[in-house]
């Protein structure tokens, strides 16, 4: 069994910072890519940032330069440092990870339950 649990969400003022964490636990053989998605009210879910096991990153244009994704492979944890927050960053943030639970199984995408980030103006 694999679980992803996000933490660090909350209410912040525009221009402030917030750091999200997502820890994967359970039976894990390996983790490939990890990512953060978000879904704002009235909008579809979008990819915010992704990071491979080797550390390569990709960001949505709207957050590039403000957000930083990182990971601690030893702890199976991915982070999202969010700086210079804007009201349009308000959304439920979800973490996702491609995980294999055994050496002979292929990677499967797992999702966390989400954490609310609200940026007030």
Per-chain topology:
Elements: E1 2-7, E2 10-13, E3 18-26, E4 30-39, E5 46-51, E6 57-59, E7 67-72, E8 77-82, E9 91-100, E10 108-111, E11 115-120
Parallel strand pairs: 2-11
Antiparallel strand pairs: 1-3, 3-8, 4-5, 4-9, 5-6, 7-8, 9-10, 9-11
Throw out a few tags for this protein.
seven-stranded mixed beta sheet, elongated, 121 residues, mainly beta, four-stranded antiparallel beta sheet
Written description of the protein model:
The chain is mostly beta strands and 121 residues long. The protein is built from no helices and 11 strands. The protein has strands at 2-7, 10-13, 18-26, 30-39, 46-51, 57-59, 67-72, 77-82, 91-100, 108-111, 115-120. Strands 2, 4, 5, 6, 9, 10 and 11 form a 7-stranded mixed sheet that branches. Strand 4 and strand 5 form a beta hairpin. The radius of gyration is 14 Å and the shape is elongated.
Helical fraction equals under 10%
Strand runs, count: 11
Report on the biggest sheet: 7 strands, mixed
How much beta, percentage-wise?
Answer: over 45%
Low-pLDDT stretches are none
Shape: elongated
| Rg result | 14 Å
Average pLDDT over all residues: 96
Structural class: mainly beta
Number of helices: 0
Question: What is the N-to-C order of secondary-structure elements (H for helix, E for strand)?
Answer: EEEEEEEEEEE
First and last CA, distance: 40 Å
């Amino acid at each position: 069994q694999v679980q992803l649990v996000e933490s660090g969400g909350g209410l912040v003022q525009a221009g402030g910072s917030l750091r999200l964490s997502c820890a994967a636990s359970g039976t894990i053989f390996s983790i490939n890519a990890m990512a953060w998605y978000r879904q704002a009210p009235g909008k579809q879910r979008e990819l915010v940032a992704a990071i491979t096991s080797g550390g390569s990153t990709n960001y949505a244009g709207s957050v590039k330069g403000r957000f930083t994704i990182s990971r601690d492979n030893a702890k199976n944890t991915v982070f999202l440092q969010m700086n210079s927050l804007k009201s349009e960053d308000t959304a439920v943030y979800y973490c996702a990870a491609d995980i294999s639970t055994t050496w002979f199984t292929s990677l499967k995408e797992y999702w966390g339950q989400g954490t609310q980030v609200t940026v007030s103006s």
